[in-house]
Amino acid sequence: MKWLIWLLSVIGIELTGFISSFFAGDIQSVYQELQKPPLSPAGSVFGIMWTILYAMIGTALFLLITSKAKGKQTAIVLFIMQQVLNFSWSIIFFGGSQYWLASVVIVALILLIGVCIKVFYRIHPLASYLFVPYLLWCLFAAYLCIGIAILN
């Protein structure tokens, strides 16, 4: 039964990424047209990275949901809050071309991911560790986002 909860958690998070990209429009075309800062990866890298990260994020959610630890509800609320920011970022950046607003959103997301890492550690350390690559990727994404806001 636990494997089903894990599977639904991962599929649910992957689905939120897919739905966000749907509302964001033609991400590949927008990305191609932008002036980008140094170290900007090819557009194809993002889909691969987010698929992996969403699987890790979904696994962290599973660990929180199935934990019996005190404070689990707070961790889940924080998880939902970061997921809302994550969901909205692509829509703001690619769909709305609001690069400075997207920069504010991603900085807020990074701060919230940091809080999640700290809180998740008390609930289930592995859930916390699973968020570290997500934090690192979002730090890189913030560099790209702010660079694009400056250049465009």
UniProtKB/TrEMBL annotation:
Per UniProt, what is the membrane topology? Multi-pass membrane protein
Gene Ontology biological process terms from the UniProt entry? tetrapyrrole metabolic process
| Compartments in which it is found | Membrane
Q: Please, which domain of life does this record's source organism belong to? A: Bacteria
Transmembrane feature ranges: 48-67, 74-94, 100-121, 128-151
Keywords from UniProt, A to Z, are: Membrane, Transmembrane, Transmembrane helix
Q: Name one GO cellular component term.
A: membrane
According to its UniProt record, which protein family does this protein belong to? Belongs to the TspO/BZRP family.
Protein name according to UniProt: Tryptophan-rich sensory protein
Species assigned in the record? Enterococcus saccharolyticus subsp. saccharolyticus ATCC 43076
